[in-house]
């Protein structure tokens, strides 16, 4: 982390988990223990149906509510989808775009990711944009090339002022839901590559200001080591974000001096 230049963000991605009742129980348990978490911003990206209630439940805290997906059109015959304006109106601040599961199961591409980013920014939302490589791609030695391609496609057409509102999450596919985690050095190496791409496209000042998260199975045990790396500015947390004690430990790690 480098708090001198950029914000540390710990974002929980609940995926398709927690009913409304379970969301309330989570809020009731975590709110008394949150503290000020002065060194980082905390975000909970929850299923669509839980968003309005989550916004109400956390309105008296410094926890921002995010969504897990968004459509790139502003209206139309797209059954089951939601627009960025719909999310903004119910109190959403962040939205995850291009998660590996959306790419794998629902046909998300680098080009739809780009359109979704632009739609989110137009509505005043902060996109959390996911990029990452598979195990096969890492073993082939093409991680840097792939990340370069993904990041450039995702950010195509943005200007420097828009880029400052974007968060990038590096999520190595081989470390999601597998129990494997990149070493702190591996995570930082790719986050540094991402920052270099941003520097080349938008300049050094913008690159210094952009938050780059690690999203490959960060948990209560490895969070402190990962977040101690200079180019890892937070985490996009999956399973550990569903458990109050674990999520609190990660937040505490982000607040380390």
Beta-strand percent range: 5-15%
Total tally of structural domains: 1
> In which range does the helix fraction lie?
40-55%
| CATH homologous superfamily label | Aldolase class I
Compute the gyration radius: what is it?
Answer: 17 Å
Distance between the termini: 10 Å
Low-confidence regions: none
Please count the beta strands (DSSP E, at least 2 residues each).
Answer: 8
Structural class: alpha/beta
Would you tell me which CATH topology applies? TIM Barrel
Number of helices: 12
CATH class: Alpha Beta
Largest sheet: 8 strands, parallel
Strand order of the largest sheet: 7-6-5-4-3-2-1-8
Q: How does CATH name the architecture? A: Alpha-Beta Barrel
What is the residue-averaged pLDDT?
Answer: 95
Shape, please?
Answer: globular
Order of helices and strands: EHEHEHEHHEHHHEHHEHEH
């Amino acid at each position: 982390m480098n708090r001198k230049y950029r914000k540390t963000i710990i974002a929980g991605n609940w995926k398709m988990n927690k009913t409304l009742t379970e969301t309330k129980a989570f809020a009731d348990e975590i709110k008394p223990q949150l503290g000020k978490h002065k060194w980082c911003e905390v975000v909970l990206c929850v299923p669509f149906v839980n968003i309005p209630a989550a916004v109400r439940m956390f309105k008296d805290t410094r926890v921002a509510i995010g969504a897990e997906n968004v459509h790139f059109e502003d209206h139309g015959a797209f059954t089951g989808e939601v627009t960025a304006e719909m999310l903004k109106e119910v109190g959403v601040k962040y939205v995850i775009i291009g998660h590996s599961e959306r790419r794998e199961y629902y046909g998300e591409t680098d080009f739809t990711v780009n359109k979704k980013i632009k739609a989110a920014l137009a509505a005043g939302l902060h996109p959390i944009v996911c990029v990452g490589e598979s195990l096969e791609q890492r073993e082939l030695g093409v991680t840097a090339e792939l990340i370069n391609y993904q990041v450039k496609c995702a950010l195509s057409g943005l200007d420097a002022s828009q880029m400052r509102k974007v968060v990038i999450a590096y999520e190595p596919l081989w470390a999601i839901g597998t129990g494997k985690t990149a070493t702190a050095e591996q995570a930082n190496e790719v986050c540094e590559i991402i920052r270099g791409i941003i520097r080349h496209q938008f300049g050094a000042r913008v690159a210094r200001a952009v938050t780059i998260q690690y999203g490959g199975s960060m948990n209560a045990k490895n969070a402190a080591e990962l977040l101690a790396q200079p180019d890892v500015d937070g985490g996009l947390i999956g399973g550990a974000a569903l458990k109050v004690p674990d999520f609190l430990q990660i937040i505490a790690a982000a607040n380390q001096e």
